[in-house]
Amino acid sequence: MVGATLALTFLGSCSKDFLEEVTYGEVSPAEMTKAENVEKAIISAYSVLNGQIDGASNAYNSPASNWSFGDVVSDDCYKGGGGTGDQNQIHQMELYNTTPTTYDVERKWMALYEGVKRTNEAMKLLNASEDFDATLKIQRTAELRFLRGHYYFELKKVYDQIPYIDETAETVADYARSNTEFTSAEIWSKIEADFQAAYDVLPSSQDEVGRPTNLAAMAYLAKTYLFQEKWQAAFDATTVVMGGNYSLMDDFQSVFLPENDNGSEVLFAVQYSVNDGQGSNYNGSIGDRLTAPGGPYYAQYGFHRPSQNLVNAFKTDASGLPVDDNIDVTETDFVDPRLDITIGRPGIPYKDLDILYEDTWARDLATYGPYGPKKRILSANSPYHVTVWPYVDALNYYIIRYAEVLLWRAEAAVELGNLEEARTLVNQIRERAANSGYVQTLDGSGDAANYSIGTYDAVWTDATDARDKVRMESRLELAMEGHRFFNLVRWGIAKDVIDDYLEVEKTRRTHLTNAAFTQGKNEYWPIPQEYIDSVDDGLVTQNNGY
């Protein structure tokens, strides 16, 4: 199933004709508007969803999963790797010492604007094509607007004040635009318009898995509203999504298996495949290849390491509700069962490998502690796991999954005063976790830890308390999926949360000694200096503090 979906450069199995991309240079300009070549240009617009542009092996500097941009700079993760000098630019990001020349800042910008450029160019070719099926042309245009909405959404949440270029751009110079030409609200409205246009046209299902549906577009529109605190609009958009065929899978752990990664819970994903004939398996999760956890079955790249703070967040009381005390979890503490599905912990079985995770797996244990990623790491027994360099697998990256939609609705419900609906939605997610399979001891005699997870049974009457509970559930459910930092920023609590995190975490991890979050600056990344230098003097305004 995985190899037959739209994935990366070829967007799937190389055995499918529609996946065989031809670059512009291989056909004459007059040939480009032929239907088959227009389709290839559209596939090219999909192909940068994974973050790779001019070299797949360094897609980890612009990962689709945002593990460095969304997790490492939050309270959820450390950079990891072979010490602070290994990918030092990510270490500097972790310390909030990012600059306009930071390599990853430049690469992320380049990858996302490459996506914008390809969607714009494909739109123009599609419009100019005379032999493209008229009905399909309307659908493909909607797909391209969805993709452009995605690329601009990512740019907006990472860099905030960005240049906006649409399909009217004709030359390279048209991409050298001011980032203050449009206000923040105007940019958001353009992103909204793309997702709305996609929703209005796209079908409810696609024969080729990986292309967006109408409800995927509506879900993304809900997320766009959420980032602007348009609570009623976000709530209404989730109503539409929840009226469709998407739902939570029964088992939390099963969500993160390649055989299920286009299942009922996944609204839109970056499609990955391996063993499909593409060199070095670059159609796999190449942006995440540094996250291999070590041990006897995996390479020891050792990046994307869970923080002690995140581990502690999974602690529960005897009734199974969160205990947010930031005190280190012990063997006797109750913990949310999602902890050992999300994080590799010493003494706990790892996947289905009949082996306990050990702290010796962790590269540079003294600096980054004993924990490793687990949720989005495939079992070494999986046929979709590749052991040779580079370490990649075929587990898709989920841009939007249904659990997020429920959490967004819960957020909006709190802000609209519907506290009991928010409680019901949070309990729905907690009930799924409670009814999922728990990690077992190696001999199968029982649970591997003291798992306890319960629902909120008392009526919610206080909006501040309800808001905190929804946000905690978002952290637990979505941990290690690249969302945490962006959520802290849009909630307006990044400074407070990260300051509290660093105050304690610096006593545990000396590599954070010089970390300091500056409010009004570190919520967003700087505009790359390379872009500023490439356009006319004074045309680009650098973000505050850089």
From TrEMBL:
<dbReference type="InterPro" id="IPR033985">
    <property type="entry name" value="SusD-like_N"/>
</dbReference>
<dbReference type="InterPro" id="IPR011990">
    <property type="entry name" value="TPR-like_helical_dom_sf"/>
</dbReference>
<dbReference type="Pfam" id="PF07980">
    <property type="entry name" value="SusD_RagB"/>
</dbReference>
<comment type="similarity">
    <text>Belongs to the SusD family.</text>
</comment>
<protein>
    <submittedName>
        <fullName>RagB/SusD family nutrient uptake outer membrane protein</fullName>
    </submittedName>
</protein>
<keyword id="KW-0998">Cell outer membrane</keyword>
<dbReference type="InterPro" id="IPR012944">
    <property type="entry name" value="SusD_RagB_dom"/>
</dbReference>
<feature type="domain" description="RagB/SusD">
    <location>
        <begin position="265"/>
        <end position="546"/>
    </location>
</feature>
<dbReference type="Pfam" id="PF14322">
    <property type="entry name" value="SusD-like_3"/>
</dbReference>
<keyword id="KW-0472">Membrane</keyword>
<feature type="domain" description="SusD-like N-terminal">
    <location>
        <begin position="89"/>
        <end position="226"/>
    </location>
</feature>
<keyword id="KW-0732">Signal</keyword>
